[in-house]
Write a structure and sequence with these properties.
3 domains, three-stranded antiparallel beta sheet, 48% helix, 9 helices, GINS_Psf3_sf, Methane Monooxygenase Hydroxylase, Chain G, domain 1, alpha+beta, DNA replication
Length: 204
């Protein structure tokens, strides 16, 4: 795995990939289709990517491109990727797709992922800006997991900008140390901390 502590990387490698066995594999135990029994050469099974990649590297199996990345699906995505339910298609579409591009040595898949991401990003950012006035639950439920993170960040940024425009995000207050100075007879003018987002900036 690329990063043992990256939950998205772990879940992306749990995605199943169709594979054809090149040799008999007794008691593989990971295939739910045959209850963990012996697997015969030339049979086709779907295995989690993390184990399939290792078996393929040792010439035990031959990998096949998963349906979400098939030639037919690529044509659909190129034609209208914004109308596709990515959560149903593959909840870790981009991360899994990047792994497959390396495994199958297909730079054109990388190009497709970048093109699709760019087109859908415009839709996601637009939805995030309208989130306060419209119910976006159904829209968000159809996003890939990485897209959901982008949506949440964009929504939070939009809300912060609106709060700032209304003067709710930052407030000028006198620092306690300056209050003490004034209480002790010291004259200090134009010295205030700018409070916001946990940071203090003093203006003199």
């Amino acid at each position: 795995m690329d990063d043992y502590y990256d939950i998205d990387a772990i879940l992306a490698e749990q995605q199943r990939i169709p594979s054809t066995l090149l040799v008999d594999i007794p008691g593989l135990g990971l295939d739910e289709q045959n209850g963990g029994g012996d697997m015969q050469a030339n049979s086709t099974v779907e295995l989690p990517y993390w184990i399939a990649e290792t078996l393929a590297a040792n010439d035990f199996i031959e990998l096949q491109m998963p349906k979400p990345f098939s030639a037919r699906m690529r044509r659909i995505l190129q034609a209208s990727c914004t109308n596709v339910n990515f959560h149903t298609l593959c909840p870790y579409f981009y991360e899994f797709g990047l792994k497959l591009a390396v495994t199958f040595d297909e730079p054109q898949l990388n190009d497709l992922l970048a093109e699709v991401y760019r087109k859908r990003l415009e839709l996601i950012l637009d939805a995030a800006q309208r989130a306060d006035s419209q119910n976006m639950a159904e829209f968000v439920s159809q996003l890939d997991e990485s897209e959901k993170k982008v949506y949440i960040l964009a929504k939070q940024s939009t809300q912060s900008i609106r709060q700032w425009q209304k003067g709710q995000l930052y407030r000028l207050q006198m620092a306690d140390v300056l209050k003490a100075f004034r209480g002790g007879g010291h004259k200090v003018t134009h010295a205030f901390p700018l409070l916001g987002s946990g940071h203090e900036h003093y203006l003199y």
